[in-house]
Amino acid sequence: MTGVDPEALARARGLVEGSDRILVLTGAGVSAESGVPTFRGEEGLWKRYRPEELANPLAFRRDPRLVWEWYAWRRETVRGCDPNPGHRALARLALEREGVTLVTQNVDDLHARAAREEAGDRAPEPAHPLELHGSLFRVRCTGCFERREHSGPIDASAVETLPRCSSCGSLLRPDVVWFGESLDPRVIEAARHRAETADLCLVVGTSAVVQPAASLPRTTAAAGGDVLEVNPDETPLTSLAAAALRGPAGRVLPRLLDDSSGRA
Ligand code: OAD
Ligand code: ZN
Questions:
Q1: 165: CA distance to ligand 2 center in Å?
Q2: Which one of 25, 62, 235, 246 has the largest count of C-beta atoms within 10 Å of its C-beta?
Q3: What string of H, E and C letters represents the secondary structure of 197-262?
Q4: What are all long-range contacts of 60-69, with beta carbons under 8 Å and residues at least 24 apart?
Q5: Which residue, judged by its Cα, is nearest atom 25 of ligand 1?
Q6: CB 32 less than 6 A from any atom of ligand 1
Q7: Contacts from 163-168 at CB under 8 Å and sequence distance 24+?
Q8: Contact 222, 216 (CB under 8 A)
Q9: pLDDT per residue rounded down to tens, the chain (264 residues)
Q10: Is 118 near ligand 1, meaning CB less than 6 Å away?
């Protein structure tokens, strides 16, 4: 049992069934049951640091080794985790219905891995989620700004061993958005457009306090769409939601999405 209120679940299923265009916005909570720590929970601390102290450009200029050590740890943590039933239910929704866009604040690759697992060798390849805050498995050059995939090991034992650009020799950094930095304008514009035109914004596992991501459900609501929240706790978006399902995403999403698409 998820402890989800049956009336809210029925209302939520009705919203999913009745929507042609669904924007799904996820945050760290969708990966919590996979074992990836959330940012604002107690387990979000690494050593004695808060994420805000490390995920910022000043920290990287001051001590790139420390920041890389944290990212190396996060990459290893995520590599040791698997997508959970919540990621998989969302992946099935996107595969089985048209008009579903997945937008995530997460920098782990669990949505993409779930999509590949659910799709198997079905064509076409599942769409990649819009990653508002970048990816742990991409790097960007601090000199020439070149971006590329990077999932190999990182040696953060000394500044000298940190990864460097093969074109210009400058330090590479994680291709993630840090505090005080702007999102990639193409990515946020695409997400805003989808939010404006969505009938339903399904918000999963985000504390909804980091902008501009947190404004996407408000955009949908302002344009006349509905907001549906899945989160064990209340958030600033709860008052906006047509239905709020209180429970962990890995248990609530399969009940919400698999049942509403007619399967057991
Ligand atoms: P937070 O850590 O702020 O919030 C996690 C949310 O997930 C909370 O609202 C929890 O109640 C909820 N939660 C916990 N366990 C859950 C579960 N099993 N199922 C569903 N929900 C659960 O994470 P975000 O909102 O993602 O940005 O944080 C937003 C951004 O702030 C991150 O992308 C990151 C961070 O600083 C950058 O790094 C730019
Ligand atoms: Zn370079």
A1: 5
A2: 25
A3: HCCEEEEECCCCCCCCHHHHHHHHHHCCCEEEEECCCCCCCHHHCCEEECCCHHHHHHHHHHHHCC
A4: 60/173, 60/178, 64/159, 64/162, 64/171, 64/173, 65/156, 65/157, 65/158, 65/159, 65/162, 67/173, 67/174, 68/154, 68/156, 68/162, 68/163, 68/174, 69/156
A5: 206
A6: yes
A7: 163/68, 163/139, 165/141, 167/141, 168/141, 168/143, 168/144
A8: no
A9: 457 899 999 999 999 999 999 999 999 999 999 999 888 887 777 888 899 999 999 999 999 999 999 999 999 999 999 999 999 999 999 999 999 999 999 999 999 999 999 999 887 778 899 999 999 999 999 999 999 999 999 999 999 999 999 999 999 999 999 999 999 999 999 999 999 999 999 999 999 999 999 999 999 999 999 999 999 999 999 999 999 999 999 999 999 998 544 443
A10: no
> Which ligand is in closest contact with the Cα of 141?
2
- The residue with tokens 């039933």 is 85
Instruction: Cite the active site residues.
Output: 133
Max alpha carbon distance in the chain (Å)?
59
